[in-house]
Specification:
single chain; Arc Repressor Mutant, subunit A; mainly alpha; 4 helices
């Protein structure tokens, strides 16, 4: 590769890196998380973290990050609530099946075991 092309590509790389860093800083000041910045700019999380770690966020940016975190908590809470409801339904069906077998066929009765349905 000739020297001129090498120098051109070298300058282009470092100029674009500088522009990416500037965009990362601007996004962080708007309240974007490190992960959001890395996804948006197609860079690694560690790079975006290094670029924005010394910034002091304004109140608007802090509020955006807090709201985003709370939405994540709400989303995962709803997921686990729905999952627990599904499992309770599944175990209820299994219990109904067992109880129906016990009531129909005396062979399935367990002596000394009390079956209680809550």
């Amino acid at each position: 590769m000739n020297q001129w092309l090498y120098n051109y590509l070298y300058q282009f790389y470092y100029m674009s890196k500088g522009l990416l860093k500037e965009k990362a800083i601007n996004l962080r000041m708007e309240g974007y998380s490190v992960k959001e910045i890395s996804d948006k700019l197609s860079i690694s999380k560690s790079t975006s973290s290094i670029w924005v770690r010394d910034l002091i966020l304004n109140e608007k940016a802090k509020q955006r990050l807090i709201v985003r975190r709370l939405n994540g908590y709400q989303k995962i809470s709803l997921h686990w609530k729905n999952k627990n409801i599904e499992e309770e339904k599944k175990y209820g069906l299994v219990a109904d099946d067992i109880l129906s077998k016990i009531s129909k066929d005396p062979v399935h009765l367990f002596i000394g075991v009390k079956v209680v349905r809550v």
